[in-house]
Write a structure and sequence with these properties.
The chain has about 300 residues and is α+β, with helices and mostly antiparallel strands. The chain is about 40% helix and about 10% strand.
Length: about 300
């Protein structure tokens, strides 16, 4: 399925220009960063501070690559053995692109155990779905849309399936375990975000949003209604409003939670005795330009304003 924009002037198709030159847009990951901790959001989007690779994140990248390549094979060849065979070349390619990933492992035995765990995730995928019966319309699809308020949304969808009647299913692979029932709504935020983008791009909500958890073989689904997607749009508008206020004041204050234990920037966080660096002016200017387009009725913020540390 080729996702196209409707005739609405508030909607745009994905841009072909390099990511570094695109205007700042809100993705599901950056939205969740801001909800988790505004300072984390600043470090990642404004400062663009480097983060060391983690075994869990790199495993996710590797398994996603395998599942994407799996659908390059003829349907009859998409079996567990073929999936496992794709692991080695995908890992070699990842090592070539990011040599630092090998530094995650202290011994060859640790690396081997990690590769075995990645293989188990690939094998479990075949217990959840039968790829021989699927022909995805899109894989690793970039979506980009500008809401009527001017907020730019952007994100990559792992897979989109289109039924003969035109119904769209959006699928995202997760290499972790499925959430407890009380946290399911939070887990589906990313998918509702994608659902909102597709709705605004095509005028029709996707029929189903689906999270596939490979660690335990569970599937979390939502058949979104227009009212649910409107609520998601309201949530996105609220998040962007808070980002706008933080950008205009320079106050990206930290928010302490249990997730701080896994934060790469803990040593820079004032909540743990650290001192945040001055944000780069170029990064602040990019964010201020983005919020300046959407802050209805707000006074324009001159360059340099809001560059104080959080």
């Amino acid at each position: 399925m080729a996702v196209s924009s409707t005739e609405s002037p508030a909607q745009t198709a994905p841009s072909a220009e390099p990511a570094a030159s695109r205007p700042v847009a809100l993705s599901p990951s950056r939205a969740k960063d801001f909800m988790q901790c505004p300072l984390l959001f600043r470090f990642r989007l404004v400062d663009r501070l480097p983060e060391p690779p983690s075994p869990a994140a790199v495993k996710g990248t590797l398994v996603h690559s395998v599942l994407e390549r799996l659908y390059d094979l003829p349907a009859a060849q998409r079996d567990p053995a073929a999936g496992v065979e794709l692991l080695a070349p995908a890992w070699e390619e990842l090592r070539a692109e990011r040599p630092e990933v090998e530094e995650m492992f202290g011994t060859p035995e640790e690396l081997q155990a990690w590769l075995v765990s990645a293989r188990e995730l690939v094998e479990r995928y075949f217990q959840v779905e039968n790829p021989q019966r699927l022909e995805p319309a899109e894989r690793e699809k970039l979506l980009e849309v500008e809401l009527g308020s001017g907020i730019m949304l952007r994100g990559f969808v792992d897979r989109m399936d289109v039924a003969p009647n035109g119904a769209v299913r959006v699928v995202d692979y997760k290499t972790g375990r499925s959430p407890r029932p009380q946290y399911a709504a939070d887990a589906l935020f990313q998918m509702r975000f994608y659902g909102l983008m597709l709705w605004r791009l095509t005028g029709t909500p996707p029929r189903r949003l689906q999270l596939v958890y490979l660690a335990d073989g569970q599937v979390l689904t939502l058949d979104p209604t227009e009212n649910e997607l409107l609520a998601t749009e309201d949530q996105v508008e609220s998040i962007w409003g808070a980002i706008t206020r933080a950008a205009q004041t320079g106050d990206f204050r930290p928010r302490v939670s249990r997730l701080c234990d896994w934060c790469s920037f803990r040593d820079r966080c004032p909540s743990f005795g650290g001192t945040p660096p001055e944000p780069p002016q170029e990064g602040m200017d990019r964010l201020l330009a983005a919020v300046g387009r959407t802050a209805a009725g707000a006074t324009a913020v001159p360059a340099g304003v809001g560059a104080a540390t959080a």
